[in-house]
Amino acid sequence: MFKSFWGSQEQQAQPHPQEISTDSWYPPSVVSSTSSSRPPTSSVTSSSNFSVSRPPDRSNSFSNVSPAEAAGIIAQLKDKSLDELRKLLSDKDAYQNLFHLLEPVKTQNRVRDELRNETLKLTRANLEKEPRIMELRNQVTVFISIQFSLIPELLSKFLKPSTLLLRGCSAKSSAQLSWLLSKKSCTT
Questions:
Q1: Helix axis angle, 171-187 to 103-168, nearest 10°
Q2: How far is CA 178 from CA 49, 129, 155, 171, in A?
Q3: From the DSSP assignment, how many helices (H) and strands (E) are in the chain?
Q4: How far apart are alpha carbons 25 and 82 in whole angstroms?
Q5: Which of 40, 52, 93, 155 is deepest in the core (most CB within 10 A)?
């Protein structure tokens, strides 16, 4: 059903092989779309007299171009002759030269260079801080190992009075004392 519905339009939208330059470095879809400034707009009329046309395929790269930037690009291309435009399509170097002359490309290149320079500065600053970070890490490791080595000593220091107290008491009084201590620790 859809094939017959879109069939006539698809046939018209397809470029003829003899129209595409074989020495172009662009894909055929790009070359065929540049042969006309407008996309094909043939339509099929249905039985209810509505005109239906297929939306043109658009690249996502054009969606980020502002109208002012597009006007600048068009102005650059407007001054070119037909031969120069054909050369842009077939010669990658000519295209790259024109591409790098466009103001949005210059701006993006400038921003890219600034970001690269800032990244290099941050990387250098981080590398300069690396010895200090390693020194602090070593200090923390030493501090932690010292603290862990003191734990048994501190534990024995705090357990010594309670063990002496428990030795001097009977079993009944030690149970009461232990109960009182646990009750006291639960309330605090």
A1: 150
A2: 97, 54, 18, 10
A3: 7, 2
A4: 18
A5: 40
pLDDT digits (tens, 9 = 90+) for 40-67: 444 444 444 444 444 454 444 445 767 8
Q: Where are the domains of the chain?
A: 1-57
Q: Which residues lie across from 99 on neighbouring strands?
A: none
Read off the pTM. Answer: 0.37
Average pLDDT, the chain: 72
In the chain, % helix, strand, coil (3-state, to 5) comes to: 75, 0, 25
Buried b or exposed e, range 129-157, using 16+ CB within 10 angstroms: eeeeeeeeeeeeeeeeeeeeeeeeeeeee
Helix or strand or coil: residue 37?
A: coil
Residue type, 21: S
Are the CB atoms for 83 and 91 separated by under 8 Å?
no
Name beta bridge partners: 185. none
Looking only at the bridges linking them, the beta strands covering 44-45 and 51-52 are antiparallel
